[in-house]
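FW: tagging you since you asked about this chain on Friday. Here's the raw sequence from the shared folder, copied in full. Didn't touch anything.
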Amino acid sequence: MGLPPPLPDGAHGGGIDLIDCYLYNIDNTGYVGLAHREPADDPSCSGGMTGYCELTTGQWYSDYDTQLRLVSAHELFHLIQFAENAEAMSWLKESTARRVEAFVWPEITDRHGIWFWFNTPELALWHGGRRKYAPHFWIFLEAHLDAPDMVADVWRRCCGRDGLSALQDAIAARGSTFNDELAEFAVWNALTYDHDDGRHYPDGAHFPPIRLHGQHRRYPVLSAQVPDSLLPEVTGSDYVRFHGPATANTLQVTVAQDPQIAPWRRIACVATRGGVNAVWRAVPDSAGTAVLAVPDWGLYDEVTLVVTTVWDPAAYFAPAQFTYSAVETAAADPGTYAAPQVVCLPNPAPAGTTVRFTVPAGWGPVVLDVYDLAGRRVRRLAAGTFYAGAHRVAWDGTDAAGRRVGAGTYLLRLQGKGTGAAARLLLLR
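HL: got it, structure written out here
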């Protein structure tokens, strides 16, 4: 990982070329491995230290050999951590050691423990219990900041300092802040848990959904109060979901809270439909209010409100209350969409295009297909029941098998109840 060997252990007779291995039967403790630093040594970076690992000798795992490899890597990394900063917070030590398992044994590791992170987003990053073992946050930082060396970099910066400052500096060196990355991490949770479509980070796609405070299907929702048990702690988040499709053009979501808490909150709305997503962000104003407007929200299957507490020095770890509301605004007159329409922009198109189509009221299920001039269907772009109004879908110039089609003229045809609509598209190459 690019880290140097642990510091020398002074007069204790050790060295880089000498390894002491202690094996104990620790089956009855509930642990599979332990790492220890020996307190007689100076834990600071200027001195030396000694330490040792204990690994279980009981073969009560069906995959004992696999577990032994993972636990060995995990506990050995703890010794390196002790050499850099013996007093670092438990979350920093455990979550990075779990991440190291994947670096050392990528062919056998799994991300056991991440499910707990997804299902308890309101808890802080450095909450106790199993949460501290999840490498989820590091996976995100590596991908979002293009920093595969993030774990090693943080521990290099830990020498003689607290772990949080080291983490903040490592993020700042890559042009961001811890608060911004934490808010993005909360949005990533909302997108990732069920969207493994090549556009999102896939690591969480096969884990259970994030825990939601509430799900709403009728509007307006006025002054809903989040239960105290789900209020996000410092560095935790809360999720509320609003379901469509709706006939309104805009969903307006409002979050209100104590003005003293507002500077430490980040608010976002994440709208998704299949592989398509959009994100709106807001920082509460001086009155503690944040308003987000999701236009054309009927284009999406769901909109998720994400509330993240980045810090709160006044209340520290005490959960801070907030309320939220959601109303539909700027509803369109159904008569506006009396006739179907298909438009391609750009047209001519050098590679792909955005197809905008209008569905009249009461049309029921519709399909939108691409045909060549010989009448052969090239690709189905949309199918299902759409609300009365304007919609859009992208076509990347490929056929149903994912092959790029040749240059030429194509026909886009919208069909549903009653008459249809069509448009010609000139595709360039």
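FW: The chain has three domains: 10-204, 214-329, 335-427.
HL: agreed, and The CA atoms of residues 273 and 300 lie 5 Å apart.
FW: great, closing this out.
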